Amino acid sequence: MTKSYSPFFALFSQLDKVDRWNKSKSIDLESVSSHCLQSAVFVHALCLIEKMYNPEFELDPNEMAVLACFHDVGEVISEDVNSLYKRLSPKIERLSRELEQESLNVIYNTLPDELKAEYKALIFQKEHQSVKAINLLKFADILSALAKASEELRCGNQDFKTPFEQLTIKANTYRKDFKSADYFIDKFLPAFSKSIDSMIELLE
């Protein structure tokens, strides 16, 4: 029986009810939705910075921002799972990937047939985006997580000490591939470890 409506955007909207860092004690809860928005803002900036150094940089900031908005859409079904847990064993890693892929399939199939072609590259990003685009999206994803860990540490939450150290190492590996890495890490990330009051003087 043909359905008279599609739950696609209603499901997408449920991302604000899916918690990230659900194995850690967070002072401020973070939803997958807010993480995707921050990743979109970050990857947009990264593209602009890349173009500042190289006007021929081929990735479009606006297109990359939209991709970032969709990069965790499967988690409305699969939920957020720490990558460390996914790698506990080869079988868990394989099953996690299968779950993530099937979650994307289910969400994609809620779209009306006439829109599927338009959304395919947004939902199945690894199969349809360039290696450079995927890597820059991953970098923005890591920066968002690092910003969160910095804020939690600033508030005295030691549960984020190890994630902060691991994410810092990961973020630094992108310095060799993207000129925007040095710029963003050095110029923007330090503010996430500061209180709003301590930043007031920078607003004057």
What characteristics describe this protein?
Hypothetical protein af1432, mainly alpha, 204 residues
Give a quick precis of the structure.
The chain is mainly α. The chain has one domain (29-189): Orthogonal Bundle (Hypothetical protein af1432).
Structural notes for this entry:
It is a single chain. This protein has one domain: Orthogonal Bundle (Hypothetical protein af1432). Helix content is 64%, strand content 0%. It has 12 helices and no strands. The mean pLDDT is 92.
CATH class: Mainly Alpha
Most strands sheet: none
Rg of Cα set? 18 Å
CATH superfamily: Hypothetical protein af1432
Low-confidence stretches: none
> How many E strands?
0
CATH topology description: Hypothetical protein af1432
From the 3D coordinates, which CATH architecture would you assign? Orthogonal Bundle
Q: Specify the overall morphology.
A: globular
- The DSSP helix count reads 12
Task: Count structural domains.
Answer: 1
Mean pLDDT: 92
Distance between the termini: 62 Å
SSE class: mainly alpha
Order of helices and strands: HHHHHHHHHHHH
- The level of helicity is 55-70%
